[in-house]
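Retro notes (design track)

What went well: tokenization of the new backbones is finally stable.
What didn't: we kept losing track of which sequence belonged to which structure.
Fix going forward: every design gets posted as structure first, then sequence, in one message. First example under the new rule, 203 residues:
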């Protein structure tokens, strides 16, 4: 039995056959309901059969345009617009697991913090808050971490404009950095396609 099969069996033994567990590309993904987020993550850490003592990454996902030609959220493709994905490592067993949770309430996405389960998620959760606007309830210091002070909006959301909403520059008269509305004209860039009858024939 491979290590991955052992992990799969241990997850089924711990959480039961009804869990949402997918195996693809030699990786296991466990989908966790938001209401069970903390309890499941704590069990993943504390259960000796699993032993996920380290969180190596946490990130946000915006499923707005998933499988659709527009940026409008398509109900039915996924239960919610936003998800949080966590990558775990068990040093003891030398195996990894991806877990995903869909965040309730697309308008104001809130999820309990995992800081008490894996303290290493502190900055990861701040990043997901900064870029996607997911609020981690109970986080000890939920501030923006990558964008500037006073930044408005969440730049990794699919509906955030590519050029942003404001630009900054140094004003020599005021001798400080100032913000002003974006001066770039919004446009759709379409690649220019050149077709020649003899293209690829060597003539």
């Amino acid at each position: 039995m491979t290590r991955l099969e052992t992990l799969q069996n241990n997850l089924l033994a711990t959480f039961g056959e009804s869990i949402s567990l997918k195996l693809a590309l030699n990786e296991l993904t466990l989908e966790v309901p938001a209401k069970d987020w903390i309890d499941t993550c704590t069990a993943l850490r504390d259960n000796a059969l699993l032993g996920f003592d380290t969180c190596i990454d946490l990130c946000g996902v915006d499923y707005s345009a998933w499988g659709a030609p527009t940026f409008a959220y398509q109900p039915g493709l996924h239960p919610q617009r936003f998800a949080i994905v966590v990558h775990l490592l068990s040093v003891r067993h030398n195996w990894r697991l991806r877990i995903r949770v869909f965040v309730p309430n697309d308008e104001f996405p809130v999820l309990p913090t995992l800081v008490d389960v894996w303290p290493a998620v502190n900055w990861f959760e701040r990043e997901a808050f900064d870029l996607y606007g997911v609020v981690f309830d109970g986080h000890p210091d939920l501030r923006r971490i990558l964008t500037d002070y006073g930044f408005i909006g969440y730049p990794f959301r699919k509906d955030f404009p590519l050029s942003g909403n404001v630009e900054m520059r140094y004003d020599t008269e005021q001798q400080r950095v100032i913000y002003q509305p974006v001066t770039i004209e919004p446009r759709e860039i379409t690649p220019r396609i050149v077709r020649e009858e003899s293209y690829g024939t060597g003539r």
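Added context from the reviewer: The beta strands are 20-24, 27-31, 54-62, 82-90, 95-102, 110-112, 135-137, 166-171, 176-181.
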